[in-house]
Design goal:
The chain has no helices and ten strands. The chain has strands at residues 2-7, 10-15, 19-23, 32-35, 38-43, 46-49, 58-68, 72-78, 83-89, 92-102. The strands form three sheets. A four-stranded antiparallel beta sheet has the order 2-1-5-6, with no helix packed on it. Strands 3-10-7-4 form a four-stranded antiparallel beta sheet, with no helix packed on it. It has a two-stranded antiparallel sheet with strand order 8-9. The chain starts with a strand and ends with a strand.
């Protein structure tokens, strides 16, 4: 059984027991989170597709950790001006463990 959920403006394919990194959520470690924006649920061949979301479907997750992603370096150089700008960025993520999928 798997589902496709939307959180943080992105879509994720999730299964029970899997861990995913999503955009930072304002919750603490160990808390339970319910993702209710479920786009599709596949229960062994029985596929339910939402328009846009599946009614009554919910994915229950546990917050495992809050992490930071790898550093991304942004480098701008202006030719013929002897000028450049270097900026770094690290994105914050929340690691979720999928507990159950209800359709």
């Amino acid at each position: 059984m798997y589902a496709i959920v939307e959180t943080g403006g992105k879509q994720y394919r999730v299964e029970e027991g899997a861990k995913i990194n999503v955009e930072l959520l304002p919750v603490e470690n160990g808390a339970e989170v319910a993702l209710e924006k479920v786009l599709l649920v596949d229960a062994g061949g029985d596929v339910k597709v939402g328009a846009p979301y599946v009614d009554g479907a919910k994915v229950t997750c546990e917050v495992v950790d809050r992490i930071r992603g790898p550093k991304v370096v942004i480098f701008h150089k202006w030719r013929r001006n002897d000028a450049h700008k270097k900026i770094g960025h690290r994105q914050d993520y929340t690691t979720l463990k999928i507990k159950s999928i209800q359709a």
